[in-house]
């Protein structure tokens, strides 16, 4: 069967998709933070990033309970807090910045899905935290766009450039 | 100083759309190209480098987020019951199935929707279209697909709204859908349109899907059997997810 075509998420998803604690996958682990930029080098204030990752042991089974809701009020009451769901969802703020609080993935990277106003079909990329054979296969000048920069203990910087000189490597899973 | 640029007219946009459709004639293209200039916001927001193909059977992306019954409440799928009063507008029921490319149902997955109210206004700070907000309509819903991959929403038909892409840019009525599959690679955000909308031909977002057959897949069908007597009109819309499913997970568990 032929797939349903993608359409842009923007611009008014802000009251619908983000949820409180969407970037707090886990406490006491690492923070990954950065900006999303467009081709003019301007920050993108209406992007939405989703993250999916393995737990520190490399397990990808995840667990339900990311968006748990109060059965009485319907309000989001957030994560289970006991199980690692592996899923995060964060809109960029008015400055084009995002932050993700999570645990170091056991297999070396966090998978990222990028949505934005103006982006007709989402994009995938990855946040790596160190050397990886996959990175070795990329041209050296592009490799760095997939590697988080350690800013201080447990805090990493990862910017996403949709276009331009520092354009992030985006992935096609076929 | 550079002279001021004349405002873009519908005729300019129509010409661009026609050229891009002609260029893609006969080619089957399921998804819109990310650089579809008639949709001006796309110009600075698409990568210019080719995407890097990944053929890794152990990839994180071949599994996906998991959702359960605690991620939704019973009221989430009825957008007309989330407030004390009834929302204004034409009540509709929208039902369909989420399937993978082999036609298999995608079960237990989260379907999220959001939309404008009957006047074409979103409950969003940045929507300053001078149409009234409806105190009885937020325009957000979610549900989990059942064992047959079915989803169902009760809502109201959203209105068309202007969006400043060019002079007289009006978006056809649409409901935004966000859908997961069993693999992160199947993730989809899309929009369902309503049949026979006169605005289709003028809308660069819908027309960004250059293949007519693919464009048709974004349009829900009026289904009289789904209409509820004295209550609502029914629309049927199935969603087919792209990308490889999580076959390695199924084998390993």
What do you see in this structure?
- Chain A is mainly β.
- Chain A has a single domain (26-161), classed as Protocatechuate 3,4-Dioxygenase, subunit A, CATH 2.60.130.
- Chain A is built from two helices and ten strands.
- In chain A, the strands form two sheets. In chain A, strands 1, 4, 7, 8 and 9 form a five-stranded mixed beta sheet that branches. Chain A has a four-stranded antiparallel beta sheet with strand order 3-2-5-6, with no helix packed on it.
- In chain A, a hairpin with a 2-residue loop joins β7 (149-152) and β8 (155-157).
- The model of chain A has no long low-confidence stretch (mean pLDDT 96).
- Chain B has four helices and twelve strands, in the order αβββββββββααβββα.
- Chain B has one domain (31-44, 65-240): Sandwich (Protocatechuate 3,4-Dioxygenase, subunit A).
- The relative contact order of chain B is 0.21.
- The longest helix of chain B is centred in the N-terminal third of the chain and has 14 residues, at 10-23.
- In chain B, 11% of the residues lie in helices and 21% in strands.
- The model of chain B is unreliable at 248-253 (pLDDT under 50).
- Chain B is of the alpha+beta class.
- Chain B has helices spanning 10-23, 204-207, 212-216, 247-252, and strands at residues 52-53, 91-99, 110-115, 140-144, 150-156, 161-162, 170-171, 174-179, 188-193, 221-222, 233-236, 239-240.
- Chain B starts with 9 loop residues before the first helix and ends with a helix.
- In chain B, the strands form three sheets. In chain B, strands 2, 5, 10, 11 and 12 form a five-stranded mixed beta sheet that branches. A four-stranded antiparallel beta sheet of chain B has the order 4-3-8-9, with no helix packed on it.
- Chains A and B meet through β2, β5 and β10 of A and β1, β3, β9, α3 and β12 of B.
- β10 of chain A pairs parallel with β1 (52-53) of chain B.
